[in-house]
Write a structure and sequence with these properties.
alpha+beta, 42 helices, disordered N terminus, disordered C terminus
């Protein structure tokens, strides 16, 4: 409780409860001392036991409230009272009083006094006599020279203990304590001190014990329970007690009482003494060893090495004035304050000294603008790179203008040739092949696992919940009947397969036991999935079955039709994971496991079955019964992603249509005649250039064998259109600004000479920036880089050739007054000679530029943009990794509901396998065995940090290690199987195998040393096949058939044992099964994979065990181990390419650094925006970030180039750059992309809304603001001089 007053009140109530229990206990003792009838005495004895148990529970639980399980146990105990009443009215039942017996050391209470001939069941009789001399057999079994058991009793006890040994013998302390419990009960010479005859039964002339009370001290009972509570069960990740449904020591002894190894004809009432033995000698109170004295970590958590401490990340936060800030944020705040102080100081100095050299800007009129645009590059005498590039493009322009149709035809022929290879394109949709390098760890390990152990199962699953979320349990008979009808309908699906034969689930399903049916993980296995059995039960029988099977799921009536026990956490959900309150589960999970086979016919048929499965559950068959179903098949994700792609296609097409309409309108003039001066056809040609560049890129890449991805089809058109449209506007507006009196040939030559350098620089920067992405390891990024670089470069070539030719043709059309789009029509209207600039051009030149160049505005702009940069740095480190599965699905997909409910109700984590490859170990050598086993403790046994022990240590801290349960070690189970105490690996004297319930005269086939290892190495492999091919049963639960697929083996040639089984020569590969905790978030999956990799890497470093972990989800999440490095490498390489190309083309180091710095600022701001807008770091966002580099260059490089070649002081040159290029950049990229991005916001896909709409909008906003606002201000302050050689590489 959080409130102290409530806590005190609670404790007072608890104290009163304990007090009244003590009073009741005293009353019971008083009543027992009086003369009462046998029925009343039996009831009082039971009441005493109930109160003892309840009081002990309450004492252990304070100050918590009593849980439901105590009330349930009490109800069950009161049910038992009715059984006592029924038994007391039976004939021949003799009630006895404890006071009539002699209870002291050396006296017995029962013994087998009736000969076996008259007592075939070996039942004990009342025998309150002194203990008698035993035999060698009784001494060998229980160690008593003098005792109370006959030799027949001792031999019977030995056989029964051998059955229990299969469960407990892997922990010697536990088994020894368990053995002592029954040896003292059966053979101890002081039996009368703790065993009291309660009832006797007369059969013929003999009297037998019917019921006895066995009194144990509370300390002894708890210590015995604790010594066995961690013992693992066979081939599972569970403990024996988990498997038996036991959660505390009272439940343990209740289970023994109902499943006694003694005899079904003798009822043993376990009672617990509170008082110490000094006050009450009538109790069993042995000093017994704990499990840590001889048991391994896998069977005793107390024996585990201390679990590694949870990695404590350095505290990256600091608290100032009650506000907690990360160090990064604090550093950014301090840095920003220092920057503000520096700006303030510099501004103050400039104001005092009057130093304002760059403020005397002039207004440039239209004539001056045209003069600047039309200056021939022949006037520039400097022999730098720009000069040579300009001269080249001038000559190229003249050539294109002379033969425009020839250029267009050549380009179209090249496009046709290149596009013809599109038919060879291969689209890769497999996530593991897209986001995981083929030589990566996860890829190679998955390949090895699939080749040796087969692919993981196909999972078909239902999650059933109440239609009204009222928190009530689903476990009602009415609900389960309807659910079973649906389950049976699905299991009975039939169809004609691809071979025209009838197919059923049995043709595809996983069958864990050879020769038996499919496994369906469902609670309905409590009724063997038989509808008649479930419907025929009364309500009380139904409740009894549910209660008993939830408490003891391994009971015979609770096993599935094929004999597989239940795993409650797998098919129940919504229960309290701490108290394991299964009865109140609010969700049921039904899972069909199907094999996965790469055979095409198998794949086709199993997907048909899955389609029919989906058709059934999509109709909501349980809706009329008040239940909802969320569902998934193995094919569901692929189906829904395909649906998403087709759903988003109209949105993408609409986005491009909107951009095309805008381009066609924006390129036109506002001069008369309007039908002539529009440029719809030219705009269409520009868009066609983009389409052709995409087609050529796809064709050439397909010819080179580069596989395409869906992300390429969604991102690259956007990228190429953004860059291409910008160049279209620059080319057209520069051409239109040329004097109309010049010939078309000269106008085009001047245009290309003027802007060809900046277009070349931008295109080459983007091409090399993307091309360097091939140096990364991620296939999707490599494919994107190749397609993007080729598409951008081809688009650049087409624009400078084919589109330039289209400009020539369009200019000649205008000269002849021919109508746009219908050039065969000629109008007589005269052209308006006045050149009217568009609204945007005038706004930037006359409105925006003077404001930006105002000194105060400059300071504000710098402060604002640097502040945004520091904020971006602060948030960059907080962006989360991952891509939620629900985000990749279309809105309304049934899988969204399924994944959400799986996260809410799922209680079982995914399995994890630890795989040892061929040649790593020699399993017959003890030194290699010790690296993987967990049996025994001490020198010469398994290493403390062996595979099993190290896993057990980590599983003690599941909250951060993400491991839970026990490792399922076939090796430890095999050693237990061959151990002499179990009797499961035995033969008769003639060499034939013993029956499963081996009699004591069977012979052990393998000689073992003191640690239970085969003395002769050859024996290890000799009987391993016997172990792996023998099914488990109640007498020998350690038989190894569950491990059959976990051990890959090579057999000796023509060598078999006496049963015809082949002899194993060597083990080629093996795996050990563990379990992750329930993983609900992307962070959980990523961290679980990291822990598994760290675990196996540590084993390799410490004990030289070369092992690797495998779970089905690793292949999808390995990218997050290096995606941050990949993204920064990609961005760094792209930035480096931009710097080198701009430096070589501009010939100015300082200006190149400014461009790269602006591009970097855009990336930082964009990543910071990802955190604020809940966009995760994943492959999609990384590709978008790399793409944003190219678009950012477009926003910056044209203005920077115009600034470099302009004349005047910095302010004048900025004015010129914005006047000449600002409008083109704003109209060409900003408005075009903004229109297209807005359309994407209406997409039905979450991934489009989050990773395309949000990120593309951020790219446009940050790119435009930095390129059109911050860059001009920065150039006006620190831009390089035009002719100065300082900071120049020439």
């Amino acid at each position: 409780r959080d409130n102290s007053k409530q806590t005190n009140t609670h404790r007072m109530k608890l104290s009163k409860t304990i007090f009244f229990l003590a009073v009741f206990k005293a009353c019971i003792w008083i009543c027992l001392s009086q003369e009462v009838g046998p029925q009343e005495r039996a009831l009082l004895q039971l009441e005493k036991q109930i109160f003892d148990e309840a009081a002990l529970k309450i004492q252990d639980m304070a100050p918590k409230e009593l849980p439901e399980n105590i009330r349930q146990e009490s109800k069950q105990s009161f049910k038992d009272k009715d059984e006592f009443k029924k038994r007391n009215v039976e004939q021949d039942i003799i009630d006895v009083s404890p006071s009539q017996y002699i209870r002291k050391e050396g006296y017995c209470m029962t013994s087998q006094t009736v000969p076996n001939t008259d007592n075939p069941k070996g039942r004990p009789s009342p025998f309150n006599e002194p203990a008698f001399k035993g035999t060698n057999v009784t001494f060998d079994i229980c160690g008593f020279d003098v005792g109370c058991c006959s030799e027949e009793q001792a031999l019977t006890l030995k056989g029964q203990l051998n059955s229990a040994a299969g469960l407990f013998e892997s922990c010697p302390s536990c088994f020894s304590n368990f053995k002592d419990l029954w040896c003292y009960f059966t053979c101890s010479p002081d039996q009368s001190l703790y065993v009291v005859l309660d009832k006797a039964e007369k059969v013929g002339n003999h009297t037998f014990a019917k019921s006895v009370n066995y009194t144990l001290s509370t300390n002894y009972s708890m210590t015995l329970y604790q010594s066995c509570q961690d013992v693992h069960f066979g081939a599972t990740s569970l403990t024996v007690f988990d498997f038996l449904g036991v959660s505390d020591f009272i439940g343990f002894f209740n289970f023994i009482n109902t499943n006694s190894i003694s005899t079904a004809l003798l009822n043993i009432n376990f009672q617990f003494a509170w008082a110490p033995i000094s006050e009450n000698k009538y109790q069993m109170d042995l000093e017994i060893p704990g499990c840590d004295t001889s048991c391994s970590c896998n069977d005793c958590r107390a024996s585990c090495p201390a679990p590694p401490k949870k990695p404590v990340l350095p505290d990256t936060t600091i608290t100032i004035f009650g506000i907690t800030l990360p160090y990064v944020a604090l550093g950014c705040i301090i840095g920003y304050l220092v920057f503000l102080l520096a700006v303030l100081v510099i501004s103050t100095v400039c104001c005092i000294t009057g130093s304002r050299p760059n403020e005397n800007y002039v207004v440039i009129n239209d004539g001056e603008k045209n003069r600047l645009l039309n200056d021939s590059y022949d006037e520039y005498k400097s022999k730098d790179m720009l000069h040579f590039i300009s001269r080249f493009w001038m000559a190229h322009g003249k050539l294109v203008a002379r033969r425009p149709w020839l250029v267009i035809i050549i380009c179209l022929l090249f496009a046709a040739f290149s596009s013809a290879w599109i038919y060879r394109i291969q689209i890769e949709t497999s996530p593991e092949k897209l986001w995981v390098p083929p030589n990566s760890r996860a890829s190679l390990e998955k390949q090895y696992f699939d080749e040796n152990f087969g692919a993981f199962y196909r999972i078909e699953q239902l999650i059933i919940t109440h239609a009204k979320d009222d928190g009530t349990s689903l476990l009602t008979q009415r609900n389960l009947i309807e659910i079973l009808k649906l389950q049976n309908k699905i299991s009975a699906i039939e169809f004609k397969g691809t071979d025209n034969k009838t197919k059923t689930a049995s043709d595809f399903c996983f069958k864990p036991i050879p020769g038996k049916g499919c496994i369906v993980e469902t609670i309905l296995q409590f009724w063997q999935s038989d509808l008649k059995t479930l419907e025929s039960q009364s309500e009380s029988d139904f409740q009894d079955r549910v209660t008993s099977c939830l408490g003891f799921p391994t009971g015979g009536e609770c096993l599935s039709k094929i004999g597989v026990p239940a795993q409650l956490d797998v098919f129940l959900g919504g229960f309290n994971t701490t108290t394991k309150d299964y009865i109140n589960s609010t969700a049921l999970v039904i899972t069909w496991l199907m094999n996965d086979n790469k055979d095409e016919n198998f794949q086709s048929n199993v997907q048909i079955w899955e389609k029919k499965f989906l058709d059934i559950v999509k109709d909501k068959p349980l809706a009329n019964h008040g239940m909802n179903i969320s569902y998934s098949a193995q094919r569901s994700l692929e189906d829904e992603l395909a649906t998403e792609s087709s759903t988003d296609l109209p949105t993408v097409v609409l986005s491009y249509i909107a951009m095309f309409i805008y381009v066609s309108i924006a390129l036109g003039d506002v001069r008369r005649p309007y039908t002539v001066n529009t440029k719809i056809m030219l705009g269409l040609c520009g868009v066609i250039m983009v389409v052709l560049s995409l087609a050529i890129s796809v064709g050439l890449c397909a010819l080179m064998g580069v596989q395409a991805t869906l992300i390429i089809s969604e991102v690259i058109p956007f990228l190429v259109l953004a860059i291409g449209v910008d160049n279209i506007f620059i080319l057209v507006e520069t051409f239109e600004a040329q004097p109309t009196e010049l010939p078309v040939e000269d106008r085009l030559a001047n245009t290309l000479a003027k802007v060809g350098s900046s277009i070349t620089m931008a295109s080459l920067s983007e091409t090399f920036a993307f091309l360097l992405g091939v140096l990364t390891r991620m296939p999707a990024v490599v494919a994107f880089s190749i397609y993007a670089s080729v598409a951008i470069f081809i688009d650049f070539l087409l624009q400078m050739t084919c589109f330039a030719a289209c400009i020539v043709l369009d200019a000649r059309r205008k000269e002849n007054n021919r109508v746009d789009c219908i050039p065969c029509i000629q109008v007589d209207d005269e052209n308006d000679d006045e050149v009217k600039n568009g609204f945007i051009t005038e706004l930037i030149r006359e409105g925006v530029t003077p404001i930006l160049l105002n000194p105060v505005i400059k300071v504000i702009v710098v402060i604002l943009f640097v502040g945004v940069l520091f904020a971006g740095v602060t948030y960059t480190s907080q962006v989360e990794l991952g891509l939620e599965q629900t985000v990749a699905l279309p809105l309304g997909s049934y899988l969204i509901t399924y994944f959400n409910e799986l996260a809410i109700y799922g209680r079982a984590g995914p399995p994890v396998y630890f795989v040892i490859k061929d040649g790593v170990l020699d399993y017959s050598k003890v030194e290699d065995q010790n690296k993987i086993c967990g049996v025994g403790k001490g020198n010469g046994t398994c290493l403390d940090n062996s595979l099993v022990n190290a896993y057990g240590s980590l599983a003690m801290e599941p909250e951060w290690t993400y491991f839970t349960g026990r490792l399922a070690p076939w090796f430890d189970t095999y050693l237990g199987w061959i151990n002499s105490n179990t009797g499961c690996c035995s033969v008769y004297k003639n060499g034939s195998q013993c029956n499963s319930n081996c009699p004591h005269y069977c012979l052990q086939v393998i000689d073992v040393d003191q640690f239970g290892r085969p003395i002769h190495q050859k024996d290890f492999f000799k009987y391993l096949e016997w172990f792996l091919t023998t099914n488990s049963n109640s007498d020998c639960p350690a038989n190894g058939s569950p491990f059959f697929p976990d051990v890959l083996r090579v057999y000796e040639n023509n060598t078999h044992d006496n049963r015809g089984r082949p002899i194993i020569q060597n083990i080629t590969a093996t795996r050990f099964r563990g379990l992750h905790t329930a993983l609900n978030t992307q962070t959980d999956f990523i961290n679980a994979m990291k822990r598994a990799y760290n675990f196996t890497d540590t084993l390799k470093e410490t004990i030289g065990l070369d092992i690797f972990p495998y779970s089905v989800f690793y292949i999808f999440f390995e990218q997050y181990l290096y995606i941050i490095n990949v993204s920064f490498i990609c961005l760094g390489l792209a930035g480096s390419a931009v710097f080198v190309v701009t430096c070589l083309t501009l010939g100015n180091l300082s200006l190149s650094l400014i461009i790269v710095s602006i591009v970097a600022m855009i990336q930082v701001d964009l990543i910071g925006m990802m955190y604020l807008w809940n966009i995760h770091f994943n492959a999609v966002s990384v590709v978008n970030l790399v793409m944003s580099v190219g678009i950012s260059v477009e926003f910056c490089v044209h203005i920077a180039h115009a600034f470099l070649i302009a004349e005047g002081n910095r302010n004048q040159r900025v004015k010129t750059a914005l006047s000449t290029m600002g409008a083109s950049v704003f109209k060409g990229i900003t408005l075009t992309k903004f229109i297209g991005v807005i359309v994407l916001g209406f997409s039905n896909s979450q991934i489009f809304q989050i990773y395309y709409f949000r990120m593309f909008l951020g790219i446009v906003i940050f790119g435009a603001s930095h390129g059109l606002i911050f860059l001009p201000v920065l150039l006006s302050l620190i831009g390089p001089p035009r002719k100065t050689k300082a900071f120049s590489i020439y």
